[in-house]
Amino acid sequence: MVIFAVGGLLNATCGNATEIIIAIFALGQGKIEVVKYSLLGSILSNLLLVLGTSLFCGGIANLGREQKYDRRQADVNSSLLLLALLCHLLPMLFRYAGASAADLSTVDSSLHLSRASSIVMLIAYVAYLVFQYRKEDDNAVSEGAAVTGFWSGFARLIGMTVVIALLSEYVVQTIEDASDSWGLSVSFLSIILLPIVGNAAEHAGAIIFAFKNKLDITLGVALGSATQIAMFVVPLCVVIA
Protein backbone atom coordinates (compact mmCIF):
# COMPACT_ATOMS: atom_id res chain seq x y z
CA MET A 1 0.00 0.00 0.00
CA VAL A 2 2.91 2.35 0.56
CA ILE A 3 3.73 2.03 -3.16
CA PHE A 4 0.18 3.07 -4.01
CA ALA A 5 0.37 6.06 -1.66
CA VAL A 6 3.69 7.21 -3.12
CA GLY A 7 2.32 6.72 -6.64
CA GLY A 8 -0.70 8.85 -5.80
CA LEU A 9 1.55 11.52 -4.30
CA LEU A 10 3.74 11.57 -7.42
CA ASN A 11 0.67 11.82 -9.64
CA ALA A 12 -0.72 14.67 -7.55
CA THR A 13 2.64 16.49 -7.57
CA CYS A 14 2.97 16.42 -11.35
CA GLY A 15 -0.68 17.40 -11.71
CA ASN A 16 -0.30 20.36 -9.35
CA ALA A 17 2.81 21.64 -11.12
CA THR A 18 0.46 23.49 -13.46
CA GLU A 19 -1.22 25.27 -10.54
CA ILE A 20 2.16 26.24 -9.10
CA ILE A 21 3.42 27.70 -12.37
CA ILE A 22 0.13 29.48 -13.10
CA ALA A 23 0.20 30.96 -9.60
CA ILE A 24 3.78 32.17 -10.03
CA PHE A 25 3.02 33.77 -13.40
CA ALA A 26 -0.14 35.39 -12.03
CA LEU A 27 1.71 36.72 -8.98
CA GLY A 28 4.37 38.15 -11.26
CA GLN A 29 1.68 40.02 -13.18
CA GLY A 30 -0.09 41.18 -10.02
CA LYS A 31 -3.23 39.10 -10.62
CA ILE A 32 -3.83 38.13 -7.01
CA GLU A 33 -7.51 37.36 -7.56
CA VAL A 34 -6.70 34.80 -10.25
CA VAL A 35 -4.27 33.08 -7.87
CA LYS A 36 -6.79 32.92 -5.03
CA TYR A 37 -9.68 31.75 -7.18
CA SER A 38 -7.70 29.14 -9.11
CA LEU A 39 -6.17 27.56 -5.99
CA LEU A 40 -9.52 27.56 -4.18
CA GLY A 41 -11.18 26.02 -7.23
CA SER A 42 -8.52 23.33 -7.45
CA ILE A 43 -9.04 22.33 -3.80
CA LEU A 44 -12.82 22.21 -4.20
CA SER A 45 -12.53 20.33 -7.48
CA ASN A 46 -10.35 17.62 -5.94
CA LEU A 47 -12.38 17.23 -2.75
CA LEU A 48 -15.86 17.37 -4.28
CA LEU A 49 -15.78 16.54 -7.98
CA VAL A 50 -12.83 14.15 -8.28
CA LEU A 51 -13.20 12.30 -4.99
CA GLY A 52 -16.98 12.07 -5.23
CA THR A 53 -16.97 10.89 -8.84
CA SER A 54 -14.20 8.37 -8.17
CA LEU A 55 -15.91 6.83 -5.15
CA PHE A 56 -19.25 6.71 -6.96
CA CYS A 57 -17.87 5.11 -10.12
CA GLY A 58 -15.57 2.79 -8.19
CA GLY A 59 -18.43 1.63 -6.00
CA ILE A 60 -20.62 0.84 -8.99
CA ALA A 61 -17.82 -0.93 -10.87
CA ASN A 62 -16.91 -3.05 -7.84
CA LEU A 63 -20.33 -4.00 -6.49
CA GLY A 64 -20.07 -6.93 -4.12
CA ARG A 65 -16.31 -6.51 -3.73
CA GLU A 66 -14.55 -5.13 -0.69
CA GLN A 67 -12.74 -1.86 -1.34
CA LYS A 68 -9.73 -1.47 0.92
CA TYR A 69 -7.67 1.62 1.61
CA ASP A 70 -4.99 2.73 4.03
CA ARG A 71 -6.84 4.30 6.94
CA ARG A 72 -3.70 5.94 8.32
CA GLN A 73 -3.14 7.73 5.04
CA ALA A 74 -6.72 9.01 4.96
CA ASP A 75 -6.47 10.16 8.59
CA VAL A 76 -3.24 12.04 7.90
CA ASN A 77 -4.70 13.79 4.85
CA SER A 78 -7.85 14.73 6.77
CA SER A 79 -5.81 16.10 9.68
CA LEU A 80 -3.62 18.14 7.34
CA LEU A 81 -6.66 19.59 5.58
CA LEU A 82 -8.10 20.56 8.97
CA LEU A 83 -4.79 22.16 9.93
CA ALA A 84 -4.75 24.06 6.63
CA LEU A 85 -8.28 25.32 7.28
CA LEU A 86 -7.33 26.61 10.72
CA CYS A 87 -4.13 28.24 9.46
CA HIS A 88 -6.01 29.94 6.62
CA LEU A 89 -8.77 31.16 8.93
CA LEU A 90 -6.48 32.52 11.65
CA PRO A 91 -5.14 35.60 9.77
CA MET A 92 -8.62 36.42 8.45
CA LEU A 93 -10.20 36.21 11.90
CA PHE A 94 -7.40 38.30 13.36
CA ARG A 95 -7.90 40.97 10.72
CA TYR A 96 -11.68 41.07 11.17
CA ALA A 97 -11.25 41.23 14.94
CA GLY A 98 -9.09 44.34 14.55
CA ALA A 99 -11.11 45.83 11.70
CA SER A 100 -12.72 48.38 14.00
CA ALA A 101 -9.35 49.97 14.61
CA ALA A 102 -8.65 50.09 10.86
CA ASP A 103 -5.06 51.15 11.35
CA LEU A 104 -1.95 50.12 9.49
CA SER A 105 -0.58 48.12 12.39
CA THR A 106 -3.51 45.69 12.17
CA VAL A 107 -2.83 45.06 8.48
CA ASP A 108 0.88 44.55 9.11
CA SER A 109 0.20 42.19 12.01
CA SER A 110 -2.24 40.20 9.88
CA LEU A 111 0.37 39.94 7.13
CA HIS A 112 3.02 38.73 9.56
CA LEU A 113 0.59 36.21 11.05
CA SER A 114 -0.32 34.98 7.57
CA ARG A 115 3.32 34.39 6.69
CA ALA A 116 3.98 32.70 10.03
CA SER A 117 1.01 30.38 9.43
CA SER A 118 2.34 29.64 5.96
CA ILE A 119 5.72 28.64 7.36
CA VAL A 120 3.99 26.33 9.86
CA MET A 121 2.05 24.70 7.01
CA LEU A 122 5.20 24.23 4.93
CA ILE A 123 6.96 22.56 7.86
CA ALA A 124 3.94 20.32 8.46
CA TYR A 125 3.90 19.36 4.78
CA VAL A 126 7.58 18.39 4.89
CA ALA A 127 6.81 16.21 7.91
CA TYR A 128 3.97 14.67 5.90
CA LEU A 129 6.39 13.79 3.10
CA VAL A 130 8.69 12.13 5.62
CA PHE A 131 5.72 10.12 6.89
CA GLN A 132 4.87 9.07 3.35
CA TYR A 133 8.28 7.65 2.60
CA ARG A 134 9.12 6.15 5.97
CA LYS A 135 5.93 4.44 7.04
CA GLU A 136 6.05 0.68 7.08
CA ASP A 137 4.13 -1.38 4.59
CA ASP A 138 2.36 -3.91 6.79
CA ASN A 139 0.17 -5.29 4.02
CA ALA A 140 2.31 -6.02 1.01
CA VAL A 141 0.30 -6.33 -2.18
CA SER A 142 1.58 -8.35 -5.11
CA GLU A 143 0.84 -6.79 -8.45
CA GLY A 144 1.33 -8.03 -11.97
CA ALA A 145 4.16 -7.02 -14.23
CA ALA A 146 4.42 -3.30 -14.79
CA VAL A 147 3.17 -2.04 -18.12
CA THR A 148 5.96 0.52 -18.28
CA GLY A 149 9.16 1.08 -16.35
CA PHE A 150 9.49 3.58 -13.52
CA TRP A 151 11.81 5.95 -15.33
CA SER A 152 9.78 5.75 -18.52
CA GLY A 153 6.58 6.64 -16.69
CA PHE A 154 8.35 9.33 -14.67
CA ALA A 155 9.80 10.89 -17.83
CA ARG A 156 6.36 10.96 -19.44
CA LEU A 157 4.84 12.66 -16.41
CA ILE A 158 7.60 15.26 -16.35
CA GLY A 159 7.40 15.81 -20.10
CA MET A 160 3.65 16.39 -20.10
CA THR A 161 3.96 18.67 -17.08
CA VAL A 162 6.55 20.79 -18.90
CA VAL A 163 4.35 21.04 -22.00
CA ILE A 164 1.36 22.14 -19.92
CA ALA A 165 3.51 24.57 -17.96
CA LEU A 166 4.62 26.27 -21.18
CA LEU A 167 0.97 27.10 -21.85
CA SER A 168 0.36 28.45 -18.35
CA GLU A 169 1.71 31.92 -19.08
CA TYR A 170 -0.58 32.20 -22.09
CA VAL A 171 -3.56 31.18 -19.95
CA VAL A 172 -2.77 33.83 -17.34
CA GLN A 173 -2.37 36.54 -19.98
CA THR A 174 -5.63 35.76 -21.77
CA ILE A 175 -7.98 34.88 -18.92
CA GLU A 176 -9.31 38.43 -18.60
CA ASP A 177 -9.83 38.72 -22.37
CA ALA A 178 -11.64 35.37 -22.35
CA SER A 179 -13.82 36.62 -19.51
CA ASP A 180 -14.86 39.67 -21.54
CA SER A 181 -15.45 37.78 -24.79
CA TRP A 182 -17.39 34.90 -23.21
CA GLY A 183 -19.37 37.08 -20.84
CA LEU A 184 -18.21 35.09 -17.82
CA SER A 185 -16.63 36.46 -14.67
CA VAL A 186 -12.96 35.91 -13.93
CA SER A 187 -13.92 34.26 -10.65
CA PHE A 188 -16.08 31.68 -12.46
CA LEU A 189 -13.34 30.88 -14.97
CA SER A 190 -10.71 30.61 -12.23
CA ILE A 191 -12.75 28.59 -9.73
CA ILE A 192 -14.69 26.28 -12.07
CA LEU A 193 -13.21 25.97 -15.56
CA LEU A 194 -9.48 26.46 -14.97
CA PRO A 195 -9.08 23.70 -12.31
CA ILE A 196 -11.23 21.21 -14.25
CA VAL A 197 -9.42 21.73 -17.55
CA GLY A 198 -5.97 22.03 -16.01
CA ASN A 199 -6.31 18.81 -14.01
CA ALA A 200 -8.36 16.80 -16.49
CA ALA A 201 -5.75 14.05 -16.88
CA GLU A 202 -5.25 13.82 -13.12
CA HIS A 203 -9.00 13.61 -12.56
CA ALA A 204 -9.38 10.91 -15.21
CA GLY A 205 -6.56 8.93 -13.63
CA ALA A 206 -8.24 8.97 -10.21
CA ILE A 207 -11.48 7.64 -11.71
CA ILE A 208 -9.66 4.93 -13.70
CA PHE A 209 -7.85 3.71 -10.57
CA ALA A 210 -11.18 3.65 -8.72
CA PHE A 211 -12.61 1.44 -11.47
CA LYS A 212 -9.64 -0.90 -10.97
CA ASN A 213 -10.36 -1.02 -7.22
CA LYS A 214 -7.07 0.70 -6.38
CA LEU A 215 -8.60 3.02 -3.84
CA ASP A 216 -5.28 4.01 -2.27
CA ILE A 217 -4.10 5.62 -5.50
CA THR A 218 -7.46 7.33 -5.96
CA LEU A 219 -7.32 8.80 -2.46
CA GLY A 220 -3.68 9.67 -2.98
CA VAL A 221 -4.55 11.64 -6.10
CA ALA A 222 -7.71 13.37 -4.85
CA LEU A 223 -6.95 13.96 -1.17
CA GLY A 224 -3.22 14.20 -1.78
CA SER A 225 -3.69 16.87 -4.43
CA ALA A 226 -6.00 18.95 -2.23
CA THR A 227 -3.61 18.56 0.70
CA GLN A 228 -0.64 19.56 -1.42
CA ILE A 229 -2.33 22.71 -2.67
CA ALA A 230 -3.60 23.72 0.77
CA MET A 231 -0.41 22.88 2.67
CA PHE A 232 2.26 23.67 0.07
CA VAL A 233 1.13 25.71 -2.94
CA VAL A 234 -0.95 28.30 -1.05
CA PRO A 235 1.66 28.88 1.70
CA LEU A 236 4.39 29.06 -0.95
CA CYS A 237 2.46 31.76 -2.80
CA VAL A 238 1.98 33.70 0.44
CA VAL A 239 5.70 33.56 1.22
CA ILE A 240 6.66 34.52 -2.35
CA ALA A 241 4.17 37.39 -2.48
Please work out how many helical segments DSSP would assign: 8
Percent of residues in helices: over 70%
Number of strands: 0
What is the average of the pLDDT values? 78
- Please tell me the total number of domains: 1
Beta-strand fraction estimate = under 5%
Pairing-aware structural class of the strands and helices? mainly alpha
Seen as an oligomer or otherwise, the chain set is: single chain
Overall shape: it is globular
Gap between N and C termini, in Å? 38 Å
- What radius of gyration results from the CA coordinates? 19 Å
N to C succession of SSEs: HHHHHHHH
Main pleated-sheet profile:
none
Uncertain segments:
138-142
Domain Sodium/calcium exchanger membrane region: 6-133, 154-240
Protein name: Sodium/calcium exchanger membrane region
GO molecular function: calcium:proton antiporter activity
Membrane topology: Multi-pass membrane protein
Question: How would you portray this structure in words?
Answer:
The chain has one domain. The protein is 83% helix and 0% strand. It has eight helices and no strands. The chain is globular. Keywords: Antiport, Ion transport, Membrane, Transmembrane, Transmembrane helix, Transport. It is a multi-pass membrane protein. This is Sodium/calcium exchanger membrane region. It comes from Parasponia andersonii (Sponia andersonii).
